[in-house]
Amino acid sequence: MKTALASLVLGFLVALWLTPIVRRMALRLNLLDRPEDARRVNLTAIPRIGGLAIAAAVLAPLIGLALYKNQISAEMYRDGRNLVAMLAGALGALVVGLIDDLLRPPAKYRLLALVGIAIVSWQGGHRLDHIEVPYIGVFELGYWSLPATVLWIVTVIVAFNFIDGLDGLAAGVAFISTTTMFVFAYLEHNLLWMTWTGAMSGALLGFLVFNSHPASIFMGDSGSNFLGYLMAVVAMQSARKQSAAVAMLLPMLAMGLPLLDAGLTMIRRAILRQGLFVSEKGHLHHRLLDLGLTQRRAVLILYGVSVLLSLGGIAFLVRLPMVHFGAAVGITVAVFGLMFAAGYLRPRDLLEMYRRGLLNREAQRLLETTCDEAVASHGRGAGDGDSLRRALGSVVAGGGVSGISYRAPDGAEIVAGDYNESEKGLRATVENGTAASGVIRVFWKGRTNGVSPRELAALRRLRDCLAGIPRPDDSTPPPPRSAEESESQ
User: Fold this and answer.
1) How many structural domains does the chain have?
2) Residues 266-292 pLDDT 10s
3) Which of 54, 347, 351, 421 has the greatest number of C-beta atoms within 10 Å?
């Protein structure tokens, strides 16, 4: 117990010391999250690589314990392959998130990288072999172990990435989750996972000093990836050590708020006819802000829901059916109350969501039409600036976008419509990674939902037309190449 508490205190102190250093470094290198589109809630540019400080604060006490001969280090070395896989996966998730923070690669590449990390973790022994359902029984996964493990790890990482939208929200919810799992490990006398979760809780608490509203630094995707991966793996490993049917249920409830938000996000984006990984402003925290709540109050409400879910999970450790029933009722009330407040259960809100889905589909068709008409009217490789300007202007005039710019292969840039860099809205960049085809940048004033794959395909056809790049079959859209799209704070 003393060792676990020492890891908590050390994690807190390291985070308290390192976070300002990382913040100053980000300011010097201009690694900032700028409030340039309508999805952002921050009003000023904020450093966005706080995940580096969190990772260092988590790993510092664990590395120190590994170098010092004690009971915890003995357990670490007992299964070295398992430990190496966990560290490699955590650092891999951190690097993927850091690349996302710095370069904003397409979502599909980030997803593939996370799937690869999850597969490596499975090979290293971090896997779901079975699922235990209270009062029903145990289900062996067999050949489904690999896809179930990959789905679990990627889902938890994405869930923490999604919920990182308000000052202190993701870090605070992660702190509640890790503290709950610390209590679980303590009750089950699991010293190793007490130490891991203790270090995570301490690091998050130290980071929250600077991340609470008004935040002076964000954890970024590097932090949400790192925490999400560790949470997923610690949940699996702690569950494997137990025989109780609640072994996996408690971590799932401890992370219930991010998982709920991720599930609702996938359903909502399907109804709205958007890509599942395009950005928009419809998460639970955004819905609470739409009700008129301040950032601080919205975060406190979500903290409260997370605490209720965690307490409900701990209640399942009590082997009394009536306690289980009471916990189930409390969890149900908390979840459905939040969903009702966020507009997921009121019929008029669901009808409005469906109506918006139809409007989004029409907007996608409009952009496709205007881009294709520009291609047909102005021809391939339009040549002079006036021709290019007319082609871009026709897209704006047709209502497809608010503003659009095209940077030709020779470096010349032509702008049409309202392309104000300081105005809030949605921006996307469509490029090929080389100068051969030029670059198109588009802007939608006041838009909060992300760019759909159909819209990206239409913009690529327009870009290729303007650059005069031939394709074997003009009736077939080119394969996806790249777009700056990110799910972030």
Assistant:
1) 2
2) 888 888 777 666 667 788 998 899 888
3) 54
